[in-house]
Please model this.
Amino acid sequence: MANELVLVIEDNHMNAKLLRDVLQAQGYEVAESTNAEEGLELARARLPALILMDIQLPGMNGDQALRELKRDPSTAAIPVIAVTASVMPMERNQILEAGFDGFQGKPISVKELINEVTSLIGGGGKPSGGAGEY
Model:
């Protein structure tokens, strides 16, 4: 599934760069937003195969943005992976119960990220090449 579009909604520039670099190395096209409002507009306009979204965003948070995505018939079927520094098992369960399709804790494990993205939308443009953790 070469060139699948992944939307990254992340307000931390270093985290966004890591996500972008990992995804592009796997052959995915990446669109980016630093806030949920712009991310929702991009999702509706570009209909990505997957969204990686920080939970703690300025303005509208990730939970609110997820509800908006799932309410809109054009974006309801797009899988959304929560990306957050929250790593408590109970919080992880709450995130998944809220409707997110996956969960990535910060700091990001490159291997886990690739595995989760691949499981939700399939392989990118090239094999992983043994990516490790950053």
